[in-house]
Protein: ABC transporter related protein
Organism: Oleidesulfovibrio alaskensis
Amino acid sequence: MTQATAQHAPSAGASLVIEHLRKEYVRGKAVLKDISLTVEGRSTTAIIGPSGTGKSTLLRCINRLIEPTAGRIMLGGVDLCALRGSDLRAMRRRIGMVFQEFNLVERLTGC
Ligand SMILES: Nc1ncnc2c1ncn2[C@@H]1O[C@H](COP(=O)(O)OP(=O)(O)OP(=O)(O)O)[C@@H](O)[C@H]1O
Ligand SMILES: [Mg+2]
């Protein structure tokens, strides 16, 4: 992490602010259209909706597993979409995510 980013690293209680987020997997076909929301620091938020409406896509944008097509995702004033290289890796280490498909090794015996 660079000195500049380390100085501005968000605190544990930083709010997450999403502005005008758009994600297209296929050009011109938006899964997320103009999503804006704020999640206050140290709070719990549930994102609910029918299958295929983009809940996982939103979470994958937040931890930068996928790149948003447009918009901003700010954590404590840091634009997560602008992070690259070691700064991006440092930020990812601070974001926990439990995948929908766990991808854990199956039990190999009947025990
Ligand atoms: N890698 C991908 N490439 C193309 N389309 C995708 C990709 N991942 C998801 N989609 C499409 O984006 C839309 C939103 O999918 P997403 O998985 O974000 O929905 P979800 O709300 O998490 O659904 P579920 O409740 O079933 O988990 C769906 O139409 C899905 O087919
Ligand atoms: Mg999902």
